[in-house]
Predict the 3D structure of the following.
Amino acid sequence: MFPWLEDSFKQLGSRIAANKLHHALLIQGPAGLGKSSFVLQLAQLLLCKARQGHKVCGQCQSCLLNAATTHPDLHVVESDKQIGVDQIRDVIKKLVSSAHLSGAKVLIIYDAHTMTESSANALLKTLEEPTANTFLLLTTDKPERILATIKSRCEKLALPLPPLDATLAWVKTQFDGEIDINFAKLFSARPLALLAELQEEQKFTYDIFSRGLEALLQGQTNAMQLAMDWQDSADKVLKWTQYWARQQCTDDAPETVWQLHQQATKVTQQLRNPGVNKTLVLTELLDKLALVKVALT
Ligand SMILES: [Zn+2]
C-alpha cells in the first residue's frame, strides 16, 4: 500500500474485521493519488478467506485467484469514455447469482462519474438492496459529476492527500533521475501522476535523438521509421532539430540548412493542428535534416 494511504486502509481493514463496512463506498481523490490500487487491495482483502488484520493471507484460494487476476467473484467495470448501461446490467446479473467461492462478492467501478444517467439508474436498485455479502467500490476524481441518488446511497470516503515531502520521498524510491522541485509542486498531491510525468520525460532523451539521427545518416533507418518511433515526442524532436539547425548556421552554410529552417517553421505551425498526421510532418522534417548532414559531410 502507498504510505500516504496506509492509515485509511487500516481503518477500513478494522471495519471489515468488525463486520461494519458499508456495502457501498465512493472513494474520492485526484487522479494520480493511487485510488485504483487502493480499491483493488481493498477488494482482495474483502475476498481473502484468512485475513490477518488488514492484510491478506496470500495463500488461500481467493488470494491465489486474485494473484492470477482470475477471481470469479471480483467484477470490474471501467471504460475509456463512458460506462454504458449494458456494462452495468451485465455485471448486476453476475452479482445476483451466488458467489463462486461462497464468500464475498465485490464490484469495482473505476471512474464512476463516467457512468451515463441510465447506467447510474440501472445500478440504483443494487445499491439500495444489495445481495448478501456484496460490496460495491466506486472510485472517482470528479464526484460533482455523480448523480445525487448514487452518492446518497454510498458512504463517501475522501482519501487523504500526501504533503509534498511525502510525495517526493516516495517518488525518489521509484525514480533515479533529478527531480525539479517546482515541477514536483505541480503534482504535489498526486505522486503517481508525478512519477508518470518524470518517466515520460526520461523516455525520449537527447541521447535517443542523437543516436537516431546517426542511424538515419548511416542508412540504418529511414526518416519515416524514426518519425513513427518519435511521433509521441514530436514537440521535442522539432525543438531539438531547430537547435541543431541553429548550430549549423554559419555564413557559408549550405542552402539545405535554410531549407531545414523553413521546414521547421512550417512544422511548428502544423503541429498546432490537433488533427495533424505527426508521422508525416516529422518524416518531411527528418528528410530535410538528413540532406543538411549530407551537404556538410
Ligand atoms: Zn487469503
